[in-house]
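Note to self: keep these together.
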Amino acid sequence: MLKRRRSSAYRESGKGRGKQNRLDKSRDITRRLHHPEEEIRRQAITELDRAPGDENLALLSEALGDPSWRVRKTAADVIINYPEQKAAISTLLNALYDSDNVGRRTSAIEALVRIGERAIDELILSFQTDDNDVRKFIIDILGEISSRKAIPFLLRAINDADENVRLASVEAIGKVGGQDAYDKLVELVSKSKDMALRFSALHILGRLGKPLPQELIDSLLQERMFRRAVFEVLGESPVPASVEPLIEGLLDTAKSARQTAIRALANVYEKDEVGILRDKVSQGLKRVMDSQRLQSMAEFLSGNHYHTKRAVVKLLGLLESEEALQYLFHASLDDSVADELSKVLEKLSREKPDWFKKVLNRESGEVRSAVRRLLQEEEVIWPLTVESKLDLSDEEFDMIRRRVMAAYGMNFDSEMKYIIERRVKQRMISLRQTRVADYLALLEDSLSGTDELYRLANLLATNETYFFREELQLRT
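Structure:
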């Protein structure tokens, strides 16, 4: 009997010591999580996956809001691989309510996206909340996960009481894609009484790149407020059915609609790799462009919108008329369109040299000199290679910096110019571009510039080492 009591006391003593050891360990990790040195905090987090439990998840949740990007990323990595997956997802969902710590909220969103389909059921259950922001975040996450499993839920979420949630649902449906998504977006554009939803669904249909039903195009063009949006979408759909409505759009009484049709038509022309659409665009232009309409188009050359001016230059070059050529010659005095204009003039001078020289000789000495300078520059286009160095002018650097800052809040001082040059060169090589001006035009493009700006910003924020990334982030 005495021996049994000693054994029991011994066991109780062992349990007590084990509990005390775990408590001491937890206190040590907590202390290190609040240490001023970033690396000590980060190392402490890596130990939290060794003993699952609510206390550790609470510490990980706190670490998601750490001031250091490295610490937040490490915490997210641990939570994503946490043994108690359901509890980990719940912890991340609770972090979405932290409106005072943007870093914590953002880290939780990114972690849930990385968990992917395993988080979908919990995300849908958590949608039953009065917090509009959290509901929108849940929709955004489902859109990024892009699983067809979420489509039925997203279709219901379109009827949410909050407008931002409704618009986010339409966006998410577009990201998931598929025939169900396409059909629903077409239905929204056709029948919804919510104008914001209709516009949003229409733009997303444009990004999907799938041609719109002809009856929908015809119907929308009857609604004046939708014409510009329809032209933008058609510009993203390089199919024969897109050309004629855009040709008609050049004759629209609204200047803004004509401007959009010009850009969209030039975009269709550029995207055509076979040549059939190029012929249709060229023939359509020659059919409708009289002197008055030509003047109306050329007026955009005196505006401030670079992409529109570039599109006008491209379309004028297709007309092969003396009047159009004269407008192109006078545009040579505008350095902002020199990149596109030099290519158009070089093509015309090569195909019809006698006619080209005859019209040019009627121009002033200033115009003739400007045209000849452009043609000489066109002959010395240099190939951009991995080994070559890209040198941005201060103006070009400032333009890219302002675009990235406006879209993503990332700012670069002049000392970081070399980073911009490296990353822009990588993107230009990927796009097979040789002129910086062409790349700048792409960034300014309202149709495809947003996607390219995202890729550039993502590249700028992804660097070779942690230390390099930290230095970059401190500067941004």
